[in-house]
Target: AraC family transcriptional regulator
Amino acid sequence: MTIHKTVFPLQRTAPFREWSPIIHYAKSQKLEQGKLAPRRIYNFELLYVSQGEAATIMNGRRYELSTGHLIFLPSGVLHQNEVVSPGGTRFLGIHFDFFGELDIHTEYDMIVGDAAPDLDRFATEAVPDVFPPLSQQVVYTPTLACVALMEQLVNEFTMRPLGYELACKALMLNILAHLLRLPHSRSHAFSSQHAIRLQELAEEIERHPSAAWTNAMIAERLDLSLDHAAKLFRELVGRPPGEYVASIRHREARKLLRETDMSIEEIGDAVGYSGIHYFSRQFRKHEGVSASEYRKLSQVL
Model:
């Protein structure tokens, strides 16, 4: 059978105990405006729009994507991605397979380059018996907790500390669980006005991590009591307000350490920590290494 007559993605019903995802590629990057070449991939990709607008043409349909949207790109399915924003779009991409069945060594191994490829090389989508397959609904709006897991996975895959493969597998399973649950819980969870306000506030925290985001301020912005605000945050974001703010600040600090020449003290001020010693303690607490060590490691890798 040829590739044009094969129905993709290949699928297999499998209980969760058989799921064993392997990460082949995980990266955050900004791409400039324009259309990318049409392609097929041997594995699967979660492509999340961190900032800006994008589009994907797949199966004769154009999917419009904006900040906060994720598209599931199945193995073997021809698609074309486009960066729509004039100033470029920032993506987070994770390539993986469900059963650890592919032998991927480079980025080029993920892309189908032959006109008549070996069909045995295409990864199989795991189909659970209690959820529809992810490929049934390709566009998702992941929760903030899910996005945090994806960012953590990218960091593990990039820095590659001892045992990163195990950590990436665990994170990927958690991410898949979040996505599979979305159609069942998302519409109900975000139906309330308070939840909409929280979503907007969480996005504001991401844009301005250096602001003084106290629990009292967050509760006031949501027009809720401290206890109710904390409960809503846990339900929709997956963690209490203070932990969420700290995670956003830590993510921004990692980015500035990797991508700028700012001093450690300047980065601490930029993400909301007054004083280099306090920032250094908080960074080591979250990352396990000092800020200066993280910067050196990221430059080597």
In short: The domain at 3-186 is CATH 2.60.120.280 (Jelly Rolls).
